[in-house]
Amino acid sequence: MVRFENVSFGYVAEHAILRELSFELSVGTFHFLTGASGAGKSSLLKMIYMALVPSTGRLTLFNRYVHELKRHEKTSLRRRIGVVFQDFRLLSHLTVWENVALPLWVDPSQRGHAFEHAQEALQWADMGDYLERYPQTLSGGQQQRVAIVRAIINKPDLLIADEPTGNVDDKSTQRFFHLFEELHKQGTTVIVATHDSKLLQRYQHRILCLHDGTLTEQSQALFTPAPLDEPLP
Amino acid sequence: MTLAALPHSSDAPLLFIQWAVGGIVYAASVMFVGVFIASHIVSHWQNQLEGHVTMQLITKQGAKQEQQKKDATEQDKQRILQLVRGTPAIAQAVWLEEEEVIRLLQPWLGSNIDIVQGISLPAVIDVTLKAQHALDPQPLRQTLSDWGYTLLIEEHNRWFSDNFAFLGRLKLFVATMMLLLTAVAALVVFFMVRVGVALHRETIDILCLVGARDAYIRKTLTRRFSFAAFRGGAFASILAALTLVGLGALHEHGLFWFQHAPTTEKQLLWGMMLIIPFIFVGVVALVTTLTTQRVLTRML
Ligand SMILES: Nc1ncnc2c1ncn2[C@@H]1O[C@H](COP(=O)(O)OP(=O)(O)O)[C@@H](O)[C@H]1O
Ligand SMILES: [Mg+2]
């Protein structure tokens, strides 16, 4: 599903914040991505949802080399990827309902049921009373819920969540993780960036740990930031 | 239900496009109509006067012209007219009455009859030539000279060919201006689209990330910019039409250029005025589409 081969990335040419990363997210797996603030978690996820391009190395998505993809092919892949952005990135001129309907709306084959599905999903997320509200009038936790619902609205093959539960209470966190698990069981590949050690303990999944620009994997659920004996092939 | 992918809030580039296209459409419409009317007036005159010459008879031997003309008897008139009509290239000849001559002189002398009466009027014959016959005035001039008259022939065609040349240059000038205005419109749109995209950068990024195709974003932007251009263009067209009607009303004969214009030409004129804003809306739409595509290709 996702394969990094010697991928390096830096916002400025001389200074790589991610160095020679090699790892793979196989179809149907669930990974946590952890690491200190500023370690490069968001940057790594941005490469996966094609908002950033690797400086060097080879990135494969859905068995396609990303650097060989044409624009319309990238769009097709993005329709199979759901993203919960760290800063939500909800559109302030659209209502909650329209924000959630957007990924379906821009796809002509799904436009017809966009609003209906969006309403159902928002009701499930306890946001049914806020359909016509604008994001900036909601609390951080509510906005995060909307962002999550938008990410899963088109049942993505790959779900990327960048600290998706930083602002929501325990109960909501559990609900969303239950949903992520549900999607995972149905075959969605999931990667969740977090530095919440409670989550890592509660949900037993593989843990990728970013430290000093390199990645180590910890298959143990108990999160201790000790490096692995050897990096992934 | 519908969804406006881009914010509708007062959008500076859109307003700019609207007023720029408005100004351009107004200038283009007024210029276009101006040339249309000028060319119509000239061709109207030309139709009336082509194949016409005016002959003036001046009595020789230094005698006072006024006296001579008044002395010219009905018999003399008939004799001269017969001679003129007998010339091969001439189809028709009419002796202009005094009032008619005064009317013809009015544009030069004004309507002050006193002045007109104070000067001597020449004898004037309005001559219609046969089509495709060249007038050889020499025998006519000779005979009239024998009878005691000097013949002056005034050809209108030469005057008109000068005017046509001028009109041709004016049309070329207007065509150049139209092209220039189109180029300006295209340039304005090009920069405004870039400003617009920069302004909505976050929205467009998110649209891309949730799987919107370039074509969708392109269409959204093009529809908006074209609509702004249409609003400005329609407003300017109405304003241009009002200006022209107003100018017509200022003229003492009312809508002067409409008095003689055939219906088809009037329809053509208003039709062209209707088309002009759409030409610029088309330019805006095309440039928006191309520019958006260019800008998008360099984005996510
Ligand atoms: N747009 C950017 N331009 C330049 N530097 C950036 C940008 N975004 C992030 N960085 C830097 O890259 C590093 C990694 O950031 P980020 O990927 O956001 O880390 P994390 O998500 O793990 O907190 C940080 O040092 C941050 O300052
Ligand atoms: Mg981050």
In words, what does this structure look like?
The complex is a heterodimer of chains A (233) and B (300). Chain A is 31% helix and 24% strand. Chain A is of the alpha/beta class and 233 residues long. In chain A, the strands form two sheets. In chain A, strands 6-7-8-3-9-10 form a six-stranded mixed sheet, with helices on both faces. In chain A, a hairpin with a 2-residue loop joins strand 4 (56-61) and strand 5. In chain A, helix 3 runs parallel beside helix 5. The two termini of chain A are 16 Å apart. Chain B is of the alpha+beta class and 300 residues long. Chain B has two domains: 3-46 and 160-299, no CATH class; 61-147, no CATH class. Chain B has a four-stranded antiparallel sheet with strand order 2-3-1-4. The longest helix of chain B is centred in the middle third of the chain and has 44 residues, at 156-199. At the A-B interface, helix 2 and helix 3 of A face helix 8 of B. Magnesium ion (MG) is lined by residues 41-42, 86, 162 of chain A.
Name a few traits of the molecule:
heterodimer; A: 233 residues; alpha/beta; four-stranded antiparallel β-sheet; 24% strand; disordered C terminus; B: 300 residues; alpha+beta; 2 domains; 10 helices; binds adenosine-5'-diphosphate; binds magnesium ion
- As laid out across the biggest beta sheet of chain B, the strand order is 2-3-1-4
Question: How helical, in percent, are the residues of chain B?
Answer: over 70%
Strand content of chain A: 15-25%
Overall spatial form of chain B: rod-shaped
What's the total count of β strands of chain A?
10
The kinds of small molecule bound in this structure are:
adenosine-5'-diphosphate, magnesium ion
Work out the helicity level of chain A: 25-40%
The sequence of SSEs of chain B as H and E is HEHHEHHEHEHHHH
Domains of chain B (count): 2
Oligomer: heterodimer
Mean pLDDT of chain A: 89
User: Biggest interface pair, residues each?
Assistant: A-B, 27 and 24 residues
Beta percentage of chain B is 5-15%
User: Strand pairing plus helix content of chain B: what structural class?
Assistant: alpha+beta
